[in-house]
Amino acid sequence: MDFTLSGESKMMVKAARDFAEREIEPIIPRIEEEDALPDDILQKFAKARMLGMMIPKEYGGIGSTALNVILVLEELAKTGSAAAFLVAFCNSVAETVYQWGSEDIRKRFVPPLCDGSSYPAMAFTEPGTGSDPTAITTTATPDEDYYILNGTKRFISHGHGKGYGVFYANDETGRITAFVADKSSEGYTCSKPWALMGLAGQGLVDVFLKDVKVPKENILGEKGKGFHILLRWIAGERIQQMAFMVGMGQECLNESLKFAKERMVRGRPVTAMQGFQWMLAEMHASIEACRWWTYRVASKQDEGDDIQVDSAALKLFVVPTIQEVARKALQIHGSYGYCKDYKIERLYRTIAHAGITASSTELQKTIVGSALARSKES
Amino acid sequence: MDIVVCIKQVPETNEIGWDPKTGTLIREGAGGILNRNDKNALEAALQLREQHGGLITALSMGPAQADEALREALSMGIDKAILLCDSVFAGADTLSTAYALSLAINKIMRFDLILCGKETSDGMTAQVAPQIAEFLHLPQLTGATEIAIENKLVRIKQRLEYGFRIVEAFFPAVITVERGINQPRIPPMDSIMEAYRDKEVQVWGAGDLGGDSARYGLKGSPTQSRNIYTKQVRKGKVTILEGEPDEIARNLIQLLKQKDLL
Ligand SMILES: Cc1cc2nc3c(=O)[nH]c(=O)nc-3n(C[C@H](O)[C@H](O)[C@H](O)COP(=O)(O)OP(=O)(O)OC[C@H]3O[C@@H](n4cnc5c(N)ncnc54)[C@H](O)[C@@H]3O)c2cc1C
Ligand SMILES: Cc1cc2nc3c(=O)[nH]c(=O)nc-3n(C[C@H](O)[C@H](O)[C@H](O)COP(=O)(O)OP(=O)(O)OC[C@H]3O[C@@H](n4cnc5c(N)ncnc54)[C@H](O)[C@@H]3O)c2cc1C
User: Where in chain A is the domain with CATH 2.40.110.10?
Assistant: First the structure.
């Protein structure tokens, strides 16, 4: 068992850190104020070759590993910004389109997700549900060479950004089918973004599909197997999301240390008090456990293993653990941590989302629990 | 136009020990980074290549772990990398470092310019590049904040204490660059993969350079450290002056005069 990162991986981490410091941190006040990402940031990510990292070169990617992707994301996550999430999203959506797409779909839709010309989208959630595939109401009706999509998708990240996305709808057989659709299609409109607790610039919109024509060859994977594709996407996305949690958790600790070493209480820095040291120790131990398990599941993905249950168990552990790290960080900061001038305030808000999106923590329990109940080993 | 860029790996922190017997740095165990100023030299070389074409070789003398610094240079887009690594080179002062580097540059043969950082963050002598120029009998243009090429002529804007001057020389020449000359690029992810998977760092030992073995390493270093000590930082009392700006300024001048500082 080798726990050392390769020179290549370490260099990628360093490059990602430099990138975050140079390109993301300085624009965060503007993103927070305008609740929008600047137009050029996607191009910058593309130029840094952070999009479509696992996609083979001939489809516009760089043919790297799941482990390298999450290492890069962990660094970018330290900004606690939606800008960093965009990178994860581009990667996971491109991977899904690549994995399930026909040769024609791969050629048409994967390169734009890697070269920064397309914002990704993965549209499942609806006003009625975000967790239950049987409650989906968007329909796809065949009409000659097309499917006609009708319905409303809710909370769709970058649903309003130019480019392509994957849309889930009930086909004529009543089963969920995944379609790759152009977000500039006729009949495709969006609400203004929801004002979120955190993740300014995430661009979470409702998408209204009114007789949107999608060519039949744009069906992703097998007809009627859309929910399966969604679950696979979520499994990979979960690892990336957990890498984000690890990065943000680490930054919570870094910020807490910086603050606590300088904050004087009764003439001594608060780090001199055992109670604070214990909090810091617990934070550190928690983050390390989350980090190495995340690396482990990513390595399993690279080895070609099924990560459905592993990534669910990972999320089940990491989300509450890092949320507790964030809580401690806020506590250490005292009232300063509750002020927008301190980074911990933003990290805390960003971290709050993780138990809800891309299938909730409760659903992870169902996935892991039912897998255990089914398992033959005892 | 072909360029050789000399780069050095330096310790990541300032918390580094000394060997009291030899007066040399104990580098083992300290994480290394590419000297930041040398990244400016690499960036300057890359920009020159973008304008004028050619091949860039990065050259470093150091222990085996300096391979990382060279891989970083390759990630940035440098074409070739050479590491001078041999136990014989250990303990080198600036003179013997420059001696080995200049022999290596001669062996590389193809070069119109040699780019260096102005100084390192650990040794900080700013001697190596000028010494290379002396060994190779080349003109040296130091402290460049701009580099321009015209035919076989290189012209730099040189920062002086009280201004600038323009200096020029014919190829080949040695140039050292200031930190402010550019913002080094961050290597893209695919280029990092290439640097580790497809590119090679050649390792040369003393045998490859030929040269006079008595001039390498500690043996070849005339510099002798008599005494090495850590600077004592005395804690002073901070006085914060308050009031209107002109009043503060007057008080400050008064105070400085009292302390014989003005
Ligand atoms: C920042 C952000 C970005 C998002 N981006 C996207 C996107 O790009 N695309 C997209 O499609 N959606 C997106 N969403 C929506 C998100 O994925 C859904 O909101 C999420 O899946 C939860 O769905 P819901 O809100 O409908 O909650 P519900 O499904 O109604 O769940 C409500 C509660 O019930 C629990 N629950 C539900 N079902 C079960 C069950 N079977 N067993 C036990 N408990 C259960 C849940 O855990 C939760 O606590 C985003 C949301 C946010 C906040
Ligand atoms: C007595 C003595 C003993 C020493 N012993 C040791 C020892 O045991 N081990 C040790 O590592 N150092 C040792 N040093 C330090 C050694 O002299 C310097 O590391 C080296 O000569 C470079 O000097 P500098 O760092 O001041 O570089 P500067 O002259 O400030 O560097 C200017 C530029 O020259 C180039 N350059 C400098 N060094 C190199 C290099 N090695 N390879 C490629 N390009 C380079 C870079 O472009 C750099 O920006 C010793 C120094 C002294 C005085």
Answer: 122-224
